[in-house]
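Structure (tokenized):
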């Protein structure tokens, strides 16, 4: 029965979305139903992580087909950790949506689409074959694009088109990679594919001619998904125009699909060629840290600033994956979880401030000084800024400290120095943003609206950022276990193929 547990985090939100559409005339019931479905799915994901951590991977073969045939779902330690992280943040996103003033949140399709996005992201983490990774990724794209297109922001449809078409090109890259790998090895099951690639390298046999192209195409696909420079250009517009509960999810957990993909590529699928991939990730990570920070520094919109800062924060994670040591991989996991919490909270706070402006917009010209009448929100934003900059006692400090320790242990001094200097840029753009909103006096006659988006969700996330900064041991222990697991791809192969 434990094997069926890997189905629940996918089936519950997907079924909840379908049933929610039937409740389109009763929006209050639909909202309660959606919240219950996502809450139940999150509980199931926690239960899955508990079982995986104690007993090992949970593998389910749909239709009873023996591996590598048929559709395989795999809840290993990496996938289960990513699912708990993603669904935990998505729960807070739904809480924010329940208390926000966006008109689009009252549309009958909003919450079913939110659940569909949850199912797509969860399925992409749990699938055991690369074709169904494509299927779940497309489900994620469609739901995210529609949620942005219906935004109250007049630029929503334009941003949605940009995201949809760049994702379409990325999907073509992934499909081409899938075809190349299938022609080369006759399988799409990730465990079987990894075993065949590893066996071929051990036998010193010449690599199939399409293997190199497949790696490049898949690498580009994950670069697009995680908005890695230079494939980042869709991200700022998309996150700025999206409804706040949606942009908070897109910039925090949806971009982690690319991080997950890079981890799978370097620790499972293409282990014989991991050194080359990791070297490229280090370069891209350093470029992302520098470019993302400088771009955030030059923006005039709080949500856009935070969207660009995601490029920088993802860069730190890529550097950790690129270093590739057990300690560096553990640091990358910690950074991924911590960034999800921080970025979701900060975007929610930016949206909450904008909801109290006379014209709902996160442009600094529109929200200057509005925070003076919102001291509690200002305290939350300041704590989030500290976490984003890596200042104790927040979880952001724990993540960056773990990364820098791994760099010192691995003697990665040049890249460590580069990201160390570039990380200072975070303080340079986040402090003026706080000052503009909460310290500068507003223009004469400008007052914050008495009501706006509720801040329960960001308050919960900031509280968790502080908790994981003061009591980081559970997350660090989990990250170390995930790192050890990633260091032994044969264990994943044996669990899936039953060897």
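Design, position by position:
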């Amino acid at each position: 029965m434990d094997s069926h547990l890997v189905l629940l985090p996918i089936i519950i939100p997907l079924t909840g979305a379908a049933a929610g559409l039937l409740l389109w005339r009763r929006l209050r019931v639909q909202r309660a139903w959606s919240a219950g479905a996502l809450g139940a799915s999150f509980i199931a994901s926690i239960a899955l992580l508990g079982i995986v951590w104690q007993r090992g991977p949970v593998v389910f073969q749909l239709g009873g087909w023996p591996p590598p045939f048929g559709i395989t779902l795999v809840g290993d330690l990496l996938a289960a950790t990513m699912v708990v992280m993603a669904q935990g943040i998505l729960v807070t996103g739904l809480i924010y949506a329940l208390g926000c003033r966006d008109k689009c949140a009252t549309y009958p399709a909003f919450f079913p689409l939110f659940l569909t996005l949850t199912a797509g992201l969860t399925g992409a983490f749990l699938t055991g074959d690369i074709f169904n990774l494509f299927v779940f990724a497309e489900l994620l794209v469609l739901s995210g694009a529609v949620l942005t297109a219906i935004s109250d922001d007049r630029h929503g449809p334009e941003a949605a088109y940009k995201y949809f078409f760049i994702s379409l090109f990325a999907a073509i890259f992934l499909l081409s990679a899938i075809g190349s790998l299938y022609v080369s090895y006759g399988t799409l099951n990730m465990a079987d594919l990894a075993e065949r690639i590893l066996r071929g390298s051990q036998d010193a046999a010449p690599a199939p001619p399409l293997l190199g192209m497949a790696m490049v195409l898949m690498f580009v696909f994950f670069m697009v998904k995680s908005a890695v420079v230079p494939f980042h250009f869709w991200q700022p517009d998309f996150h700025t125009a999206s409804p706040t509960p949606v942009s908070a999810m897109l910039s925090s957990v949806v971009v982690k699909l690319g991080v997950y993909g890079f981890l799978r590529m370097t620790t499972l699928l293409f282990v014989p060629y991991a050194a080359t991939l990791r070297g490229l990730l280090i370069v891209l990570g350093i470029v992302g840290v520098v470019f993302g920070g400088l771009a955030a520094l030059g923006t005039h919109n709080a949500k856009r600033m935070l969207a660009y800062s995601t490029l920088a924060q993802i860069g730190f994670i890529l550097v950790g994956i690129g270093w590739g040591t057990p300690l560096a991989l553990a640091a990358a996991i910690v950074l991924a979880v911590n960034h999800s919490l921080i970025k979701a909270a900060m975007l929610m706070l930016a949206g909450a401030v904008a909801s109290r402006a006379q014209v709902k917009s996160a442009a600094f010209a529109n929200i200057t000084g509005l925070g003076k009448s919102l001291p509690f929100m200002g305290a939350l934003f300041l704590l989030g800024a500290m976490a984003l900059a890596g200042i104790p006692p927040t979880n952001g400090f724990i993540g960056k400290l773990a990364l820098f320790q791994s760099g010192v242990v691995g003697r990665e001094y040049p890249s460590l120095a580069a990201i160390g200097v570039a990380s200072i840029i975070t303080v340079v753009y986040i402090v003026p943003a706080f000052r503009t909103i909460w310290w500068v006096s507003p223009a004469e006659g400008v007052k914050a609206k008495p009501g706006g988006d509720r801040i329960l969700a960001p308050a919960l996330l900031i509280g968790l950022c502080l908790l994981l900064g003061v009591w980081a041991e559970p997350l660090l222990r989990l990250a170390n276990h995930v790192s050890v697991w990633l260091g032994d791809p044969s264990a994943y192969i044996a669990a899936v193929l039953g060897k």
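Reviewer-requested clarification: The longest helix spans residues 156-185. The longest strand covers residues 58-61.
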